[in-house]
Amino acid sequence: MKGMGVIVNPWLRWRLPAWIIACQLCLLGATGASFAQEFPQVFVDRGILEYDEGNYEEALNNFLQALDRTPEDAVVRYYLGLTFMALDRPGEAIVHLEKARGLEPNDLDVAFTLGVAYSRQGDYEAALPHLRFVHTQQPSRENLGFYLGQIHFRRQEYDQALAYFEKNSSGDVEFQQLTRYYIGLSKHYLGRTAEATETLSAAVNLQPLSPLALTARKFLETVAPPPEARPFRLEARTGVQYDTNVRVAPTENLLNLQGPRRGSVGETVYARGEYDIVRTPIFSATASYAFLQVFNNQVTDFDIMDHTGGLETTYKGYIAALPALVGLQYNYERLLLGQKDFVERHYVTPYLTLSEADWSLTTLQYRFETKDFKSPLTAGLPEENRDARNYLAGFTHFFLFAGGRHYIKLGYQYDAEVADGLDYTYHGHKAIAGFQVTLPTEVRLLFNYELHRRIYPEPNALATLLNESGTAG
Known about the structure:
alpha+beta
């Protein structure tokens, strides 16, 4: 049997791959139960396989049978300790791990597991010498820095705790999140609040739906809140563009709309300012003004200047125990085309946003808009009067991932335009879809798609006139 590798140095045996152990058990099967009684290693091998499968009660039974036959076997004691740890019985694990430590005082696996068992039981002082022993010989061992950091954190030795936490390495995402959480707490207690906030936010983003993420969020809200927003904000942008059809002219030269040129190089200038008139944790009122200028160098009659002023109020509260944001927005817009007034708009938009869960967000929206066009009627037709009232209602639902860093959105809107000219009266349906992906470099990839189907109930008078003119010609 020695030639088959059955009698092996027991301290090396538990480091063998499970498939080798399985093969050995198959070879041993032919020898019968009497061999198992004589060689307790069989029970160890069976226990290892059951442990690897997650059958901890069966593994425990096999290791206990091996212990009855070899009570001084460090391997058996070690595996009993591991199994009791898996069964969340650290007190019983410590008994066997202490015995294994006495039998094999230089083994790093036993020392580390014993230190973890004491930590699990809350006896950090007893855990410390075993973990320090491992650190002197294998400082980069996975999760060793976490357990040592946790002990110094409990002692309120935050400098030392932070040093251990920051050097910890782990391939387990739960340990990664837990380590970042304790790094954030350590920095907070060291007075490094801004760094603590950043680290705790990173811990939340790692697993946004975990219980620890909820704890970290509460800590951020109560102990380390983000900096208060400035009451005044200003944004400015500029750019260069090329438009192939500035006049939006049809294919055929109807009503001389095409003109000598259609395309043009241009420049854009955009600026927006906001001022918080009132801002409290539950209520805010913000005034805003935006300016847009588009220069079309070759078609200057179609230069655009747009002024938009607005006032928005929001209220944070709860509806049916769900976090809610209720808002009301008013905007006035004046648009000039070729330095001449083209249209004035007023629109009022009430909206409601409900957060059903950490991963789910829904916005309900209604909008009423009035339009007053200053340009003359096309071909003098009263049906071409574009002055109108527009009504819109709809919703947009967001599926959130990684705390909102990524999302998928789907929505629907119904709108109706009641114009003074029947050519512009319609009702329509709009489908909305899109997504956002935030890369590790904080670069955001956005995609939005809208499909708007408008239904005009009346025949178009301008089209009829053009058809009749073409027929007559």
